[in-house]
Amino acid sequence: MRYAVHRLLQAVPVFVATTFLIYAMVFSLPGDPILALAGDKPVPEAVLQALRDHYHLNDPLIVQYGLYMAGVFLRGDLGETFTGQPVSELLTDRWAVTAQLAATAWIFELVVGIGLGVVAGLRRGKLADTAVLAGTTFVIAVPVFVVGYTAQIVLGLNLGLFPTAGTDDGWPTSYLLPGMVLGSFGLAYVARLTRTSVVENLRADYVRTAAAKGLRRSRIIGRHTLRNSLIPVVTYLGVDIGNLMAGAVVTEGIFNLPGIGQQVFQSIQLQEGPVVVGVTTLLVMIFIVASLLVDLLYGVLDPRIRRG
Amino acid sequence: MTVLKKARGAAVLLTAVLTLGACGGSSENTGGDQAGKSTGPGAGTFSVALTEPDHLTPGNTSSSYSITVLQALFDTLVVIDAKGQTQMRAAESVTSDDQQTWTIKIKSGQKFHNGEAVTADSFADAWNAAAYGPNAWTNNYYFANIEGYDKLNPEAEGAKPTAEKLSGLKVVDPSTLEVHLTAPFSQFPITLAYTGFAPMPKAAFTDLKTYDQKPIGNGPFALDGDWAHNQQIKLKRFEGYAGPRPAKSAAVQFKIYASRDTAYTDLRAGKVDLLQTIPPASATEAKKLLGDRFVPTASGTMDYLGFPVFDKRFQNADLRKAISMSIDRQGIVDAVYNGTFKPMSSLVAPLVPGYREDACGETCVYDAAKAKALFDKAGGLTGTLNLYFSNADPSYEQWMQAVANQLKENLGIADIQFRKIPAADYLATLRAKKEDGPYRNNWVMDYPSPQNYLESMWGAGNRMGWENKQFTDLIAKANSAATMEASIPLYQQAEDVALAEMPMIPLWNWQDQAGYSNKITNVTIDPYSPNLDTITVK
Question: Where does the Solute-binding protein family domain lie (chain B) (predicted)?
Fold first, then answer.
């Protein structure tokens, strides 16, 4: 428990530093976001003034950041986009989409990835193992947008097994195909990690000892080998939650899912400081919480860590 | 593959200029006789693919996506029909004796979706709000030629406006609006087709923020429920509509896509009924797949190559012409845009009245030998040639590279560098005249008048730093011409002057490709509007 509290307290300076850093980076992007919004058309000086005042763009960085933070903590106001939509509202809308997508991808990664890895590890050198190795190499080698468009056109459009795009059919139907595409890279990684780990542990002394004691093979594998093999996999899966949420830009684009990744991409282009900071801070928090959970889970899987 | 990437990159940008043509409505409805067959008039719902609009307040958006929605929600005073002619819609007439004081008569009996009557005040209020500097609305500058505009938009830094209303707008009676311009402007009626000039009800002004989310218009469709950002906007037929184009279907659903490619896949899957921007890379396939339901639409958008005429090295007109003649426009359009764009030999787009197919003459025709001769005669070019473009879309870099190769090969310019500038910084760079070489210049048409192109890009204070009194005099004369017809030859003369000096080279004209599902009929897309009111559902 103390461990958990300690870890959470560590998150505070991380939070302040990241928000400031991100704000400063958006601030330092070249160009004038307000002029860019206007495109090729002329903008009267009075309009520029009004917009810059509204978004505090004339103030120095530290004042802008201070105003933003004051808004967040005193009024619970996360700021607004250049089109006047409150960031909080935007986050709630988009958050749901990304969470559902990431969850689908994550479950897919976890179940199929570990499953394939265990099968391959136990049947090392056999056909199943070779197939998994070849398949995962392929998935890792092919860029995600190729996988995405191919899956969309073959499985969605031609075969009609899944909806082609959008969120109309809700969870899980709308999220199955994009989830699999998004999770495919991680799946390949998880499968390989699990396989290696299983192979190594099968050769470990304690497994030989257990076998010598006459334990059933199913018990040796299920209770001892797998449990130990999963430590590196859990680490990866934990960190990957964050990756899945932040890194879904391409998948969200292909399948037209209005999620967080797309929003960050757009907002960086438009130099919308408050949005970028709001979204990334949230992502940082998720990374922090996820790695905390991973650390706590270690303890469950490996008593040595818990006691140390 | 590269064009595929391009489409995705472009689609996520709010500022993307995948244009629909920024103007007005359509020809008046073709009569109520086509509703006959299986359905009664106006049953059924269809869906339209869209990119997330920025705003839905008419005065505060110039995004083509917003305009698609606004054209269904609002009736503007006039519209441009499919042939480019101005037709009255909410207005009875728009007249002037001196091209400076305009009298607008508004049709009676028209209502907003909330039941409020559409009067001269509805227009005056909307225009005053748009012209008021501190509101910071996108279309502010459209009102700059109305008397009193400077009082609402003081130039000096930190100065406060001294008025809230344009003194040039006079509501004579509920159906008459008088507009006093700062100078004669024969093209004024055409500009009124732009959705930026749409009326707003009194109810809007109690809470403009809410209005932007839930606009109340006077058009054949009304908003149905909330604008679900990044997902959908639903419209339903406005039963109280008394105007000339009642909706033929019960409802429209705008489905919002972040990627055109995805929207196109959904069109093929039958998940969306109308897509106005089929990606150029898919044009050939779409034509085969959709047959008659593939609709290429002319667009007013043009690409140019501008010169920093303020820079000594580019002050020789022959040098600029030589560069123009060394560019193989057709070759580039075929390679980069799948042949969908049209090489241009004119400064205005083909759909603009007064367009001449060959206004430019041989100066815009690819001829490597003549180009080289002219280039040498002009004394060539010393130092590095920097080419400027933004990173908003990968296709810009592709065609700039093609241009560079042709300049190298045809003119022997060895030292060419690319200056790829972040999109947010690009226009600021040009505005500050920091460029020292040719740059990509794009124009999205506001209204189909040569004036919109010529005066905006070649007129006073232009980006190139080009000054020509003959040109500005001709434009002024055309602006005060007695009729639209009389103004055209004058604009053409001005165009000739600009072409003779060639401070900016015309390259190509964009084209949109729409496609629709077999679920809908009577699709009458034209360059000015998708005309959603005419569509019936089978």
Answer: 89-462
